[in-house]
Write a structure and sequence with these properties.
alpha+beta, 14 strands, single chain, 33% helix, 3-stranded antiparallel β-sheet, 19% strand, 12 helices
Length: 328
């Protein structure tokens, strides 16, 4: 038991296995020490990170599990530095004063299906951990980043997150989390791409194709957002991944013009020969207005406004009676 729990045991377990006199002698001699009520560490030195987790779990009693960002970090999530220990306990559990740097959350739905059956220390399954972590953090942007990071780092699928979210449908910020998972399912895998989705909706632009695959002489390339019918590409964070040859001719060598938007940098490039442009064109104007002016520049108007393109023509890649081919 000591080896499995990193040298951390409950007083009751130690008394049961070694006898109370032997345990009290080790405590009085300084070989072992009591770190909190009912929990003993079988050493005298400082606690390791793993021992901190076990102390928090054993102090919380049976049925407690590591959760949120604490559990997600153990399962491989990186990029989120929260040194507090997040615990999930049944709603009926009564605790003494919580330990320092330990955050206790109560939940009516905490059973064997929520806790991983094999991993130690005991913790919630990864999808549940990410959803809980996104629920408990304060900024909305950080909540969205947690969900996106789980998918981007190839730790979990968006469908798994959706099932975990549906399991606890009445928690805070559920509408935001559902919208975020919708964007992630459509291909947005980073917070910057989620910001870009917000801008697309704000300016009434049609939804682009996400992570579009393109093959050229240099191999496979993945473009963040593509409106094929308009020959318009938006690259998030201003990285073009070698977009030379995007539309051919002199326009292919047009340099990207990064524009700063809240939390995101993006670049838009459109091919030459489009109505309303003189040769190759890039996104213009102060951001975020630059993206808002990209729609009128390609002939798009939000639904209900005059001059809107026919949706059927958009999907077929036909504009002004001419086919706008795009080679993938």
């Amino acid at each position: 038991m000591c080896a499995r729990q990193a040298g951390v045991v409950t007083s009751a377990a130690a008394f049961r296995n070694l006898g109370e006199p032997a345990v009290r002698w080790r405590l009085s001699s300084g070989r072992w020490r009591r770190v909190c009520y009912g929990v003993i560490v079988t050493q005298s030195g400082p606690l390791t990170e793993e021992q901190r987790l076990w102390v928090a779990l054993l102090a919380a009693g049976d049925g407690a599990a590591l959760a949120g960002l604490t559990a997600a970090r153990l399962d491989g999530l990186t990029g989120f530095d929260d040194r507090r220990v997040h615990l999930l306990i049944p709603v009926s559990r009564k605790l003494r004063k919580p330990l320092r740097d330990v955050v206790v959350h109560r939940c009516a739905r905490l059973g064997p299906a929520d806790v991983h059956p094999a991993r130690q220390p005991p913790r919630t399954r990864l999808a549940r951990s990410l959803v809980d972590g996104a629920t408990w953090v304060t900024p909305d942007r950080l909540a969205r980043a947690i969900l996106a990071a789980g998918v981007q780092q190839r730790l979990v699928r968006a469908t798994d997150l959706g099932q975990a979210l549906a399991y606890c449908p009445h928690g805070p910020r559920r509408r935001l989390l559902r919208a975020t998972l919708g964007d992630v399912s459509d291909g947005a895998e980073a917070l910057s791409e989620l910001d870009f989705s917000d801008l697309v909706g704000r300016y009434g632009l049609p939804e682009p194709d996400r992570q579009a695959r393109r093959v050229d002489a240099q191999g496979n390339r993945w473009l963040d957002a593509v409106w094929e019918w308009a020959r318009l590409v938006a690259e998030i964070d201003g990285r073009w991944h070698g977009c030379r040859g995007l539309v051919g001719g002199p326009a292919a060598r047009q340099r990207a013009d990064p524009r700063r938007v809240p939390g995101t940098t993006f670049s838009c490039v459109r091919g030459a020969g489009q109505p309303g442009s003189r040769g190759p064109a890039t996104g213009r104007g102060a951001a975020p207005g630059g993206l808002g002016r990209a729609g009128p520049g390609i002939g798009w108007r939000p639904a209900g406004s005059s001059g809107a393109l026919n949706p059927a023509r958009q999907r077929s890649g036909v504009r002004n009676g001419k086919s706008l081919s795009y080679r993938n």
